[in-house]
Each structure stands twice: as C-alpha cells, then as structure tokens.
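Hey everyone, long-time lurker, first post.

I ran two proteins through the pipeline my lab uses and got sequence/structure pairs for each. Pasting them in order. The first:
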Amino acid sequence: MSGSWSDFWARPNKIYVNDRHLAAHCRAVADALLTAIGDARDLRVMDFGCGDALDAARVSARCATLYLFDASPVVRERLSARFAGAPGIVVLDDAALDAVPDGQIDLIFLSSVLQYVDPGDVDAFLARHARRLAPGGRLVVADIIPPGVGVVHDTASLLSFAAREGFFFAAFAGLVAIFFSGYLRLRQTAKLATYGEEIILAKLSAAGLAATRLPRNLGEHPWRRSYAARKPGGA
C-alpha cells in the first residue's frame, strides 16, 4: 500500500466522526461479510483489511475460523487485545499472514482495500490472495471505486448513512474536521485507485478466478461496486 496511506491509518484520524459512526461502520461491514458467507457454517474466512472489526464475534459464530488482518500495527494491537482468547478468531500479523499455507482459506473478504493498493501491485496482490484460496474458494472484493466516483459521492454517502444510523449532525461537523485534517490533501497527492468493471473483472480473471459483479455493493457506499470471484475446483 501507499506509504502515505499507511501512515494516515496508523495515526489518529477523523474518518470516523464519533464512536457511534465507528460502531455503525463495523456493523455494516460485518453484515456485508455475513452476506458473503451465506448459509455456510464451516468456512475458514479471512477479513483482510478488517479495521477495528468490532462485530467480529458475530461473524466468527458463522465460521470455522475467522482470520483478521489489518496492515496497521496499531490496529492489530487493538484487535489482539480485544479478541485475546476469543474462540474461532485469529488475529494475524505480517509474519503470520505470510505463513498461511496456500489453498487453506475458503473465503477472503476485501472491503475498501484495493483503492489503497498501488495499481502497479494489484495484479500480484490479487494473485497472492487467489493462491491462499482453497479449491472452490471465493474472493469477495467490496467497495471498489469506479472512475468518476469521488469526494462528492463520498460526502453524500456519509450523510445518508449518518441519517439512517442517528449521527447526522455529528457527521456534518465531522466533514469540517476531515477537511482540515489533511485527508482531502492526501487524496489529491496519493490518489485512491479506481477500477471500471471490465478492468477489475480482467484482473480477477488473470489471477485465475471466475468473477462476476454483484447486484449491489456490499458496503455503505451505493456508488461503489462489489465483485465475487471463485477459484476453480472444489465441490
């Protein structure tokens, strides 16, 4: 990932306007992951780029094992403290992630991740995840930003989500804090990667996965897109 974005997520920031926003976001991500899991009960699931994952226990109740990984060491420390001893939840650091054997994960969930990966590294990034999948396993990529979707759409999405979840006025004030936090300036210098449907489907295909666009985005942002890709083999 871009070093600038890594630094941004590793230090305190104003992306979540208050605790209610963070809790609502984590609940929405957990709901999206549970939608991806479907009716299965014995899957080995990896939430890559999981953030604080406040609802991970609810997700793990539907999995054989839930692996959590976030690129930020600060976030991983919070995850390790929060889920120490929690049955069925494994928090991975960089070394533990690298040690996961190929072909061992049934479902990998990437939500709001690819926009932070250097476009020159995306093919290798997707291929590495494809190798982690068991035969018949699935890679679900959510919150992909299409070309032309930007700050205006993000603002409208946040305010709509905030109105539904009961923190609208805090969100409105938070937008001012975000404006002065350097986030918008960072978006101009370390741009978020965008992908049209044909491009992302081609990249998933090049990783050896059969992919399709989902009917709706598995996330809070209605203008973004989600894709599901399956590895050949399996039952």
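...and the second, right after it:
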Amino acid sequence: MDSPYSSRRAATWLAPLWRWSQRLAALFVLTSLGVVLGLRWIDPPASAFMLRHALNVWRLDQTPPYYQHVWIDWAHIPAGVKLAAIAGEDQRFPRHLGFDLIEIRHAIRTYREGGRLRGASTISQQTAKNLFLWPGSGWERKLVEGWFTLLIEILWSKERILEVYLNIAQFSPGTYGLEASSRRYFGRSASELTRRQAALLIGVLPAPGTYRLDRPSERLQRRAEWILDQSRRLGGEAYLRRL
C-alpha cells in the first residue's frame, strides 16, 4: 500500500508535467490556427511532403532542384480539371465537413465482411496530410490530420481547399502540383489541358508511384474514362456551383 509521502511525491512530480503539457497543447493549437488562417490568403511555397522529398534527395547528394513544383491560381485552373478532381477523388466534397461519413461506413462494412480495409480520405483530409504532415497510418498522425482537416474546413472556402490540393498533390515521383505535372507530361500549362488530359492527371492521384503519365497503362486509361463519365453524371461543370 502506497504511503501518503509517496503519493505527495507523485503529485509534486506530475503537477509541473501536467502544466507543461497544457502549455504545449495550447501552443500547438494557437500556432496551427495562425498558420492555417494565414494560408487562407498566402500560397504555400512547399508542402511537408515536398520538404521530406527534398531532404531524402539531398541526403543522396543529388543536385537541386530536388523536385518540380509551380503554383497555378484558382482562376487559371480549368473547370474540367476541378470537376475531374471531385469526380475522381471525392464526389461529396461540396457537401461534407471534411469527413465523408458515408464512405467511412462503407469501408468499415467491407472490412467486416472480409474485404480489404480501403481508404476513405476526402480531398480535405489529403490536403491536410500533404501540406502539414507525413506519410503513414498511425493513430497519432490520424488525430493530427483530423485536427488540421477541421481547421481548413472552418477557415478556408471549398475553392481554396481544392486550389491548394491541386497545387501540392504528388502526380509522379519528384513532381508536385497540377501545373508542373502538366508542363512535364503534356508540354503545356494546366490552363490549356483538354478534358481527357485532365482526367489522366487526376487518374494517377491514388497511386502516383504506380501509374505513369509518360506511358499511360490500360488501367490508367480506363480510370480516366471512368472519371470523365462520373464528371458527366455529376452534371458537368454546373456541379462546381455547389462549392
């Protein structure tokens, strides 16, 4: 049985630790709020994923540039690209608050029935992960991802979330963002992409290390056709008015 003395010692030791934990938590909340609010208007020059890629390449003594990335403003992104991104990645994007509860339920049910546990990430979640965090699926990262997802949903417009997502998503090894990928693989600005080229670009997003834009496989071409079909089923460019 613990003595009153040992209990007092434990309390004396835990009190400062608890106060420091509270301060660190408050600092994290305030810092993240400030950063996310600022990025509502300031275009991020890089993402956490880009910086991680650059660090890995730098360690291999390769010369810069360590990756390709060019920003393109919302006004210059064709409606067909915006629609393809929603059709291919997150069809409930205009309606949800960062988390697609319907897809989450479907994924859980499929897993319980013996299927593979598939992802149900929204465009908002992917934006939060790519911009602020690191690869992985641990619960710690998921908690932080959820916090940043809520912040960008509250502090940004849907247009801003989609704009940032298309500018930081990885489309191939070493190439980030719609504009750099369009120039590299189609020899033109993203503002000049055809609908099919837009569908091919969006089609690689689930697995940019697997699909190849320089030699589109039959699987990628079928996925691009599916994205075009889904874009039509959503109602075409009129669907973007819901953002």
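Reply from user beta_strand_b:
Welcome! Quick read of the second one: The two ends are 62 Å apart (CA to CA). The longest helix spans residues 4-38.
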